[in-house]
Amino acid sequence: TRWVYTFGGGKAEGTADLKNLLGGKGANLAEMANLGLPVPPGFTVTTEVCTWYYSHGEVYPEDLKAQVASALDHISAITGRRLGDEADPLLVSVRSGARVSMPGMMDTVLNLGLNDSTVQGLARSSGDERFAYDSYRRFIQMYGDVVLGVDHGEFEEQLEIYKDENGYVLDTDLTAEDWRTLIERYKEIVERHLGRPFPQDPTEQLWGAIGAVFGSWNSARAITYRRIHTIPESWGTAVNVQAMVFGNMGETSATGVAFTRDPSTGENALYGEFLVNAQGEDVVAGIRTPQNITEAARIAAGSSDPSLEQVMPEAFAAFRDICARLESHYRDMQDIEFTIERGKLWMLQTRSGKRTAKAALKVAVDMANEGLITREEAIARVDPASLDQLLHPTIDPSAEKTVIAAGLPASPGAASGEIVFSSDEAERLKSAGHKVILVRIETSPEDIHGMHAAEGILTTRGGMTSHAAVVARGMGKPCVSGAGAVRVDYAAGKLTAGGKVLKAGDIVTLDGATGEVYAGALPMRKPDLSGDFATIIAWADAVRRMKVRANAETPLDARTAREFGAEGIGLCRTEHMFFDEGRIVAVREMILSDTEAGRRTALAKLLPMQRSDFVALFEIMAGLPVTIRLLDPPLHEFIPHTEEEIAEVAEAMGVSPALLKERADALHEFNPMLGHRGCRLAVSYPEIAEMQARAIFEAAVEAAAKTGKAVEPEVMVPLVGLKAELDLVKARIDAMAALVKQETGKDFAYKVGTMVELPRAALRAGEIAETAEFFSFGTNDLTQTTFGISRDDAASFLGAYQARGILERDPFVTLDREGVGELVAIAAERGRKTRPDIKLGICGEHGGDPASIAFCETVGLDYVSCSPFRVPIARLAAAQAAL
Ligand code: PEP
Ligand code: MG
Predict the structure, then answer these.
(1) Is 751 among the domain residues?
(2) Looking at 596-725, which runs of residues are DSSP E strands?
């Protein structure tokens, strides 16, 4: 087996297509080398080695050693340097690289190959002794930290002590001699921890680093990250070993990161940051504040630090050309890392750049308009779930604001919450139902869980490409980074900003679009859905086949749904219309009376309320289809519990509270989700269904008269398992329709259909379709009943299922294609066989989940129905499914 792929010297053994094998970084390094770009030579140890390693008790394949050795020869042949050569040593970087970038993993060891004798060789070959010893101490610290497990704080502490002893302030004050002394102290720290000296053999160093990369695949942080982002354990990571180039060889050297377009706004302009005389991670670490790459960006930012364009015009020009080339080669916005060593540009990484939802839309629309990609590709480029970011509120511009601090607008959106200073605390408070803003000096991969729990993130250090900024953008959360005037005191649990002191628990509001931080919670405003958003959605509408409806029962929801482009209501849950003040008593009366006469009295009170609700819905939906589901009450939600509630209902019914309590107790169910629900209620008490049917039909007549548009209601019967259940209820509905037509003298069309949410209904869909004119898949209940997992109790144990890899995703969020999906497919097929024109839809939560929507397309459903805020997401997802 080939375990190792080389690159460099104008060619490579891999290509960008081999991402699964080489990881994202390795595949793109190969691609850049093939394009003839200046890539330091190196090699990639494949992801298959990682998988092999874990499936063989953490040992390597036998022939790996030899393959790595010959790949090292490949680097030597190009660079003329050999690992461990005392005169002119080869130094390498070792980086992890999974298929997708994973901040939870070990990322980099730089300067590998240095030891007590090669450092002298480096000093001679570079002609810079200070640089050589500085590199060696960095290597001991980095290797000590990520490979040997020595806390980097210990090295930093030694450095601080040394500076104090010698009256130094800055790292740059230290001479070669100083570094030499510190190196001895660093080595002692390592030896104390390890019980043996810092490894001097470069080959041993290399294998140590490779082992650390593979080990980090199973670190707690990486596992958490994979769980949050549903990345399979089986993917593994690759390891990239590459000849070092130095951005820290003095004032003609630099290192930086750039995006070919602005990752925050999508604007078509090169955007990036760099540091002169710095190495690798210094830029992203956010310790020094980086400078702008282009003059335009520098001027826009009002910065007086010179841009790369100013200080290294030639390297800048070369870099700008390569960026343009990479973008048109990959036909996507690129995120690029580079180093300039004594004026010579080197490319270290390119990948498709993470961007905000807003930027994703703009880049997709612009690129389609530029002719770089097709409209279909533009549609496919936007992650439907990310639109959520744009559907969220921004701060009402007319709000009274007290600015307490300002930083960089690192990730857009606005959020309010209580200040917390640690990620653990953020997670704890979030699970207790609080909204929190995570405030940190800077964040690291250890803060992922806290960032996940927080509504927004505020950091006092770091630029637009700092960890906090990049991760927050990926999560779609507002982030203000580098708010330098804020002083954070973790120990005291407070921050100071502009003379104000705020404690943990105090409320602040972040505006990630302006970078401002305000005191208190501010009023928010609805998002603007015009511009690129509207363009992409319009393109999506032109290609999608499935319709998108909304689950809505209130006029507000119905209006929101229409604003978001819903093409009808797919589910109006009538029981939700009764929770209002003033109605619940009448509903309780209906449920609790033990005679038909008593029920009819209560129903008579409910009829006008229902009718006017339906009129409002029909008017708002103006001729679009509206599916109204008959009452489906899990009874426990309606039965009165407190003495007060019981007394209120007893009075309304004219019975004693004691009698009423008895009746309520008798209605208690052990498993209400599988109890007297759905059509079972209509079978026991058909007069309830009749009242609802009357309300629906009378409302249809009234709304048609008001709007001048015909209303064709779809009456839906829930929780049907047997055709006979549906037959019985449908007979009552039909009779009521005839009666209303007679009473009003008006004709109207309507449909009667059923939810398919029980396995039996799915299996017997063929005969049920003899009666049902449409099916709507209630995949919430269908998932519950197929798995035998209670919807309400699943959360307490599904986490363990996901952690153990038994279930990759929560089946209540993303439809289980194999099991529940098979029932859906069977029902669709059998239903169509009986009734070829049967209308098929889905109204479970899955109707708003992009992966589930893709499944719905494969079984050819006519529409999906989801909550109003997910309608745009569903429109885009339905288009992607149809491509
Ligand atoms: C369903 O079961 O999927 C459904 C939409 O109905 P409810 O969630 O109201 O039970
Ligand atoms: Mg249901």
Answers:
(1) yes
(2) 626-629, 713-717
Q: What is the mean pLDDT of residues 820-838?
A: 98
Tell me the average pLDDT across 866-879: 93
Atom of ligand 1 nearest to the CA of 845: 3
CA-wise closest residue to 122 among 138, 108, 107: 138
The DSSP secondary-structure symbol of 584 reads H
Q: Do 579 and 716 fall into the same domain?
A: yes
Is residue 487 within a helix (H) or strand (E), and if so which, with residue range? strand 487-489
Does a structural domain hold residue 29? no
Domain final residue pick, 301, 329, 355: 355
Residue 580 pLDDT > 80: no
Share of the chain above pLDDT 90, in %: 73
Identify the CATH number of the domain in which residue 422 sits: 3.50.30.10
Q: What is the pLDDT of residue 879?
A: 98
In the chain, the number of structural domains is 4
Rounded Cα gap, residues 196 and 755, in angstroms: 70
Are 479 and 469 in contact by the 8 Å Cβ rule? The answer is yes
Angstrom CA distances, 809 to 446, 801, 817, stand at: 23, 9, 11
Residues 317 and 464 in one domain: no
Residue nearest to atom 3 of ligand 1 (CA): 778
pLDDT confidence band for 803 (50 / 70 / 90): confident
CATH of the domain at 350: 3.30.470.20
**Coil/strand/helix, residue 340:** strand
Alpha helices in 115-264 (DSSP H): 118-126, 129-146, 152-166, 176-194, 202-216, 220-228
> 843: Cβ below 6 Å to ligand 1?
yes
Q: What is the pLDDT of residue 687?
A: 94
Say if CB 465 and CB 403 are below 8 A apart.
no
Average pLDDT for 472-492: 85
Confidence (pLDDT) at 283: 65
Q: Which of 323, 479, 572, 843 is catalytic?
A: 843
The amino acid at residue 54 is: Y
Residue 795 clears pLDDT 80, i.e. is over it: no
Which ligand 1 atom minimizes the distance to the CA of 778?
A: 3
Residue 104's H or E segment, with its range, is none
Binding site membership of 631 for ligand 1 (Cβ less than 6 Å) = no
Q: Is 183:133 a contact under the CB 8 Å cutoff? A: yes
Pocket mutation for ligand 1, best pick of 575, 681, 757 (most atoms within 8 Å of C-beta): 757
Q: Is the model's pLDDT at 315 over the cut of 90?
A: yes
- Residue finishing a domain among 224, 243, 262: 243
Question: Is 7 domain-assigned?
Answer: no
Say whether 679 is catalytic.
no
pLDDT, mean over the chain = 92
Q: Checking phi first, is residue 336 left (phi over 0); if not, alpha (psi -120 to 50) or beta?
A: beta
Residues 761 and 696 reside in one and the same domain: yes
From the CB of 757, is ligand 1 less than 6 Å away? Answer: yes
321 and 397 in a single domain? The answer is no
Q: Residue 645 above 90 pLDDT?
A: no
Q: How far is the CA of 124 from the centre of ligand 2 (A)?
A: 76
CATH number (domain holding residue 624):
3.20.20.60
Q: What is the pLDDT of residues 341-385, one digit of tens each?
A: 999 999 999 999 989 888 999 999 999 999 999 999 999 999 998
Residue 172 predicted with pLDDT over 70: yes
Question: What is this model's ipTM?
Answer: 0.99
- Which of residues 813 and 183 earns the better pLDDT score? 183
Mark whether 239 and 260 lie in a shared domain.
no
Same domain, 234 and 284: no
Q: What is the pLDDT of residue 461?
A: 84
pLDDT value of position 467: 75
Q: Tell me whether residue 132 is in a domain.
A: yes
Crossing angle of helices 129-146 and 118-126, in 10° steps, is 140
The pair phi, psi for residue 284, each rounded to 5°, is -70, -25
Full residue range of the structural domain in which residue 302 is found: 254-355
Same domain assignment for residues 548 and 458: no
Statement: residue 103 has pLDDT above 80? no
Q: Are residues 132 and 76 in the same domain?
A: yes
Catalytic residue among 392, 452, 467, 846: 467
